[in-house]
Write a structure and sequence with these properties.
- By secondary structure, this protein is mainly β.
- The protein has a domain at 36-48 and 71-143 and 145-162.
- It has two helices and 29 strands.
- The protein is globular and about 65 Å long.
- InterPro entries: PWP1 (IPR044285), TonB_box_CS (IPR010916), WD40/YVTN_repeat-like_dom_sf (IPR015943), WD40_PAC1 (IPR020472), WD40_repeat_CS (IPR019775), WD40_repeat_dom_sf (IPR036322), WD40_rpt (IPR001680).
- Keywords: Phosphoprotein, Repeat, WD repeat.
- Pfam families: WD40.
């Protein structure tokens, strides 16, 4: 089996005194290899408050060390979940663009986590208080629990735990496991944070279920059992925040309104195990799904039918890679630009204009088998890449002539700060 990464980028708002993070994640199927990155989370650093309290930092450090530990307003942050020598941890990377245009990246600090990470999702909802904004990463793992870690604190325990094992009893050779109420009963493979209803976190599991959690109360509010095999990925519609996609090894994608969990939803049949899902941030009706057989398929949800005997026709299907397409990322600032990463070690950029996709750039980033790709939410031409070699890679796609020729007008564009 091979393994996986997710990505998170961030930027600081000077009005909040320290820093802020925003993240988007892309997870794919369980792939386990030794001593490599598992999950990468990329986020642009200007939307959320990030009050970093490092216990190991003292006033006695010299000015150069102080400079390294200070997160500047125009820095970006990348959170990488990784595993080295059986030790799992979250690495918080700083990405800074120097005055000469070169990019400097380094690890700012790290948080040791107790379980092997499979997926991540960033969220800004303050755990339990529900007021203001926080800076948290939810981590799904081979364990049954979802742990939520405060990235602003150097802590040894998660801020909250969703589900998990309540008790294990042994009687002779027989072992009885008691789960916490509404817990998943197998590995958590996918996570998605709802940016509109900020206390809501969706999870996908190998137990074939999808759950929606209220992180303020650490309780499960909805459980859906619409699949017949492991559920690999979940994704909220950015335009209609009650709509949730789930993709499974049963070769279907399910579209559900979580307000009506008993409704069967709408099924989109696909030709292989689902690896990842992504909504088009520039079109409320469109999403893409990547598969284990190397294909990427696009659907328009307006064409969906509730009749299980009627298969929804895709907008397009492309044979994107020679192996599984483990991760995808739409550019949040540039319409019709999609990045795909694969276990064939290649990363590709696609122009999806008019539902006639064309590959405009291909690169072997030397990351090994690619498990995660994610565009920066602030800098349209920065693409973070994580793979089996365990080294974070950054591709400045503006170095590609085809990208500049088609999308050069977006080079100076940045997402406006939220009010």
């Amino acid at each position: 089996m091979t393994r996986r990464m997710t990505l998170s980028f961030s930027v600081r708002d000077s009005k909040t005194c320290t820093t802020q993070v925003m993240t988007w994640t892309r997870i794919s199927r369980i792939r386990l290899q030794k001593d490599h990155f598992v999950s990468l989370t990329l986020a642009p650093l200007k939307y959320l408050p990030f009050y970093l309290l490092l216990k190991f930092f003292s006033r006695d450090n010299d000015s150069e060390e102080d400079e390294d530990m200070t997160i500047k307003p125009d820095d970006s942050i990348i959170v990488c979940a990784s595993n080295d020598d059986d030790v799992s941890h979250l690495e918080i990377w700083i990405l800074e663009v120097l005055s000469d245009g070169t990019v400097n990246m380094y690890v700012h600090h790290e948080i040791i986590i107790p379980a092997f990470p499979l997926c991540t999702a960033w969220l800004d909802c303050p755990i339990k208080s529900g007021e203001g904004k926080g800076n948290f990463i939810a981590v799904g793992s081979m364990e049954l629990a979802i742990e939520i870690w405060d990235l602003d604190l150097d802590e040894v325990q998660p801020a909250a735990v969703l589900g998990g094992i309540a008790d294990i009893k042994k009687k002779g050779k027989k072992k009885t496991i008691k789960y916490k109420k509404d817990s998943h009963s197998d590995s958590v493979l996918g996570l998605a944070w709802n940016k509109e209803y900020r206390n809501m976190l969706a999870s996908a599991s190998a137990d074939q279920s999808v759950k929606v959690w209220d992180v303020n109360t650490s309780s499960c509010t909805v459980t859906m059992n619409d699949h017949t095999d492991k559920v690999q990925a979940v994704a909220w519609n950015p335009f209609a925040s009650q709509i949730l996609l789930s993709g499974s090894f049963d070769h279907t994608v399910c579209l559900k309104d979580v307000r009506y969990p008993s409704h069967g939803g709408y099924k989109f049949p696909v030709s292989a195990d689902v690896e990842s899902l992504a909504w088009d941030p520039h079109s409320e009706h469109s999403f893409v799904v990547s598969l284990e057989n190397g294909t990427v398929t696009s659907f328009d949800i307006r064409l969906a039918s509730s009749d299980p005997t009627s298969a929804t026709k895709p907008c397009f299907t492309i044979h994107a890679h020679d192996k599984a397409v483990s991760s995808m990322s739409f550019n949040p600032l540039v319409p019709n630009l999609l990045a795909t990463g694969s276990t064939d070690k290649m990363v590709k950029l696609w122009d999806l204009s008019n539902n006639q996709p064309s590959c405009i750039a291909t690169r072997n980033t030397k990351a090994g088998a690619v498990f995660s790709v994610s565009f920066s939410d602030d800098c349209p031409f920065f693409l973070a890449i994580g793979g089996s070699k365990g080294k974070l890679q950054l591709w400045d796609i503006s170095s590609e002539d085809a990208v500049l020729n088609k999308y050069g007008k977006y080079a100076a564009q940045k997402r406006p700060p939220k009010s």
